[in-house]
Amino acid sequence: MLTDVIEFRIDRHSGVSTYMQIVHQVEQAMRLGLLAPGDRLPSAREVVDATAVNPNTVLKAYRELEREGLVEGRRGLGTFVTKSLASEATAGDDAPLRKELARWMSLAREGGLVVEDVDALYSAVREEHYPVEERS
Amino acid sequence: MIPLSADSVGKRYRSHWAVRDCTFALPEGKVIALVGPNGAGKSTLLRMAAGLVRPTAGELEVFGTPVRGGTHPDVSFLAQNRPLYSDLTVRETVRVAAAMNDRWSAERVQEVLGLQAGVDHGAKIRTLSAGTRTQVAIALALGRLPRLLLLDEPLSDLDPLARDETLRIIMAEVADRGTTVVMSSHLLADLREVCDHMLLVDEGRVQVDGDIEEVLARHRILVGPAADESAVAGTLVSATRTQRQATLLLKDSGPAPQGWTDAEPDLESLVMGYLRASRARSSAPRG
Amino acid sequence: MIWASFRLQRVQLLTLLGVLVVGAGVLVLLRSNMVDAITSAQLTQCAARGGSACASDAQNVFLADWSNLFQIARILIIVMPILIGVFIGAPLFAQELENGTHVLAFTQSVSRTRWMLSKLVVALVPALVVVVVLQYLVWWWLTAAGTLGPRVNGAWNPVNFGIDHVSPIAYTLFAFALGAFIGVVSRRTLVAMTAAFGVFVAVRFVLVGQVNRFVPSERRVAVDAPAARDGGLQVGSGWLDAAGLEVPRARSLAVSDACRTAPSGTPPGQEEFLACMRESGLMNSYALVLPESSAWLAHLYDAAIFGGFAVLLLAGTVWALRRQS
Questions:
Q1: Cβ atoms of residues C178 and C89 within 8 Å
Q2: CA atoms within 13 Å, Cβ hemisphere of C98
Q3: Do C and A touch (≥3 CB pairs < 8 Å)?
Q4: What is d(CA B209, CA B188) in angstroms, rounded to the nearest whole number?
Q5: Class assignment of domain A2-81?
Q6: What is the model's pLDDT at position C35?
Q7: Which helix (H) or strand (E) holds A86?
Q8: Are both C110 and C51 inside the same structural domain?
Q9: Which pTM does this prediction carry?
């Protein structure tokens, strides 16, 4: 079933609004290639059944995605992904950068680093290359 | 069409005004949180909208029709005490409610009762848990196929599982039928995640009325030196002050002056700010 | 809506049905046993004509067996209205208001008036039917006892009056409406039941016999109507002069006092006394009597009064419920 493509996980205590969480999760799924053009996003009712969020919030998130040009609502049919955010570099298990990161990760593990060390290293290097003020 | 509007509505019980000078117009298709502390006038407001209580002053309109001495056919009301006949079984209760309505969807009721596992249709109402009672009462409310659903404290007394199921039923109704929902609660946490719009009531008056995101976006919390408050622009809602530092909740404020930090409030602190302000106003004249 | 009202009144309706079935069965059985007893004791003539036709031994045996049962049956019909008022009328709306279930009804599409009427009809009509049937059966039974039963005391006897004609229906209507009204005003079942009981008993007690004054009385002159009992109710007496006009009470008293204290010092005999009265122009004594055949009129007045109260109380009930929140 198309609706099995993505399921939202709403964290009520994250402090991030439900609406932003949905937008982010759709974008992330698109980046990872889990959602491709032509895929239908779950209907508001399906999201309500799964998570008991306000359907208006879901629709608002979809409108935001539509404004960003990522999806398109078709009357009576649902909301469909129209664009791909996945690139060679990010989509699929065999993307080159992903393979390289996986290799680095296994080296770290072999070197005895615990997960906190890995996170700290990752964040530090990310800060160097993507300073906060440059991020949108 | 505006599902529910009030024009200078007031309700006086003897010398006490439970609701006073309330004016608002709720947007259609939204989930509206009616919040305020206990005794703020939420129940009175809902009971007036349901046609159970006659306003002392002003007038309410439901879908453009003035509310007079009866419930509008497009309105369903869930009373706080979930009035159900305790000697009847669930099945009989549904039949009684069906008999009292012209427009009735037995399928809708069965659908809602079917949403939670194990509502025994042969069980007497008095044997049901608070959560199941609420769900039966909501099922009856939805059987009327309302366009405006008024729920008085729908989540009070519910355990987390029943709370989640109840919210799911209400949200599914919104998704399926575009029903406008007004939910009251004295606990903000109950409603924060599921509502689009808020109506904050205290001391019988409307304190805040608007889309939650917009309301939050229009307010700032500024923290800075207490001696320097005059530099701050905007409408002051409420303030807490220590000897040196002031924390101000502002509406439509300008940019934060030098030396002040600036943050968007979360809903909780916004509501607290308004409640503090309304308390200060109401206690001030009495001295 | 009617089904809903039936379901909500189920306990009361089943109780009424039980009372009706058991009561009717018992009354039919009692009557047939009594008729057998009258026949076997050879009291048939006595029951039909009374007086000299009765052998006093057989009559006493019969009365020892049956008069308590007669009393119980009469009391049952007398108290049924108040039982209906207390157990059906008073809780009808009080229970809904007390439990808040009226809010369920008031927020559905059925109008408040229709809801009220449906509840009233479903609760009241079966109660009236039971009262009428049992009243008829008791009357039928007591009639079969003839002069051996309490009906010998005549239609004006307060207990006989209370169980006869339209009076029980009127009392039931009044008791029911009273209970319903107090229930709506007090919003408390127990309060309504207690108050309805007290008020009904008081009103009923105060009004006993009050309607009799509206029934025209017959003037019976002692000479042509001797003391024979014909079931009439004497409501006054006095003396007539030669022209057949009533003598003012003060004068007739003065004269009769004078005639009683004869100059000889010994009390006068009946003949002497009457002769003395005639000498003073008081020719005949008379009695004012409500004939038994006029009792129906008193019942109609009675029903009008209690029925009128009932209508006012029901109107008050509807009015109070419409203002209810």
A1: yes
A2: 16
A3: no
A4: 15
A5: mainly alpha
A6: 92
A7: none
A8: yes
A9: 0.83
Domain range for C260: 218-290
Residue of chain A nearest B268, judged by CA positions: A15
Give A36's strand partners. none
**How close is the nearest chain B Cα to the Cα of C187, in Å?**
15
- Give the span between the Cα atoms of C61 and B98, in whole angstroms: 62
Residues C139, C109 within the same domain:
yes
Which H or E run includes B102? none
Residues C143-159: pLDDT tens digits?
998 888 888 888 888 88
pLDDT of residue B287: 40
Q: Write out chain C in H/E/C secondary structure.
A: CHHHHHHHCHHHHHHHHHHHHHHHHHHHHHHHHHHHHHHHCCCHHHHHHCHHHCCHHHHHHHHHHHHHHHHHHHHHHHHHHHHHHHHHHHHHHHHHHHHCCHHHHHCCCCCHHHHHHHHHHHHHHHHHHHHHHHHHHHHHHHHHHHHHCHHHHCCCCHHHHHCCCCHHHHHHHHHHHHHHHHHHHHCCHHHHHHHHHHHHHHHHHHHCCHHHHHCCCEEEECCCCCCCCCCCEEEEEEEECCCCCECCHHHHHHHHHHHHCCCCCCCCCHHHHHHHHHHCCCCEEEEEEECHHHHHHHHHHHHHHHHHHHHHHHHHHHHHHHHCC
Residue C268 predicted with pLDDT over 80:
no
What three-state secondary structure class fits B203?
A: coil
Task: List the domain boundaries for chain A.
Answer: 2-81, 96-134
Q: Check whether residue C135 and residue C43 sit in a common domain.
A: yes
* DSSP element (H, E) containing B283: helix B267-283
Domain boundaries, given as residue ranges, for chain B? 4-202, 216-283
CATH pick for B4-202 out of 3.40.50.300, 1.10.10.10, 3.40.50.2000, 2.30.110.10: 3.40.50.300
Rounded to the nearest angstrom, the minimum Cα separation between B256 and chain C is 51
Total domains in chain C come to 2
**The residue type at C123:** A
Contact of chains B and C by CB distance (3 or more pairs under 8 angstroms): yes
Amino acid at C41: A
- Among B73, B77, B96, the residue with its CB nearest the CB of C7 is B96
What is the DSSP code (8-state) at residue A41? P
C233, HSE (Cβ side, Cα atoms, 13 Å): 22
Q: Among B55-69, B164-178, C186-200, C247-261, which is the least confidently predicted range?
A: C247-261
How far apart are alpha carbons A31 and A117 in whole angstroms? Answer: 26
**What is the average pLDDT across B65-82?**
92
Please indicate, yes or no, whether residues C159 and C178 belong to a single structural domain of this protein.
Answer: yes
- What Cα–Cα distance (Å) separates residue C206 from each residue in A84, A90, C180, C188, C310? 94, 98, 21, 27, 17
Q: Give the amino acid at A71.
A: V
Asked if C261 and C242 sit in the same domain, the reply is yes
Q: Is residue B52's pLDDT more than 80?
A: yes
Question: Mean per-residue pLDDT for B33-44?
Answer: 89
> Among residues B34, B16, B114, B128, which one has the least CA distance to residue B77?
B34
Tell me, yes or no, if B76 comes closer than 8 A to chain C by beta carbon: yes
SS3 state of residue A102: helix
Look-up of token digits 């290799």? A103
Q: Closest residue of A to B116, CA-based?
A: A49
Specify whether C275 is located in the same domain as C314.
no
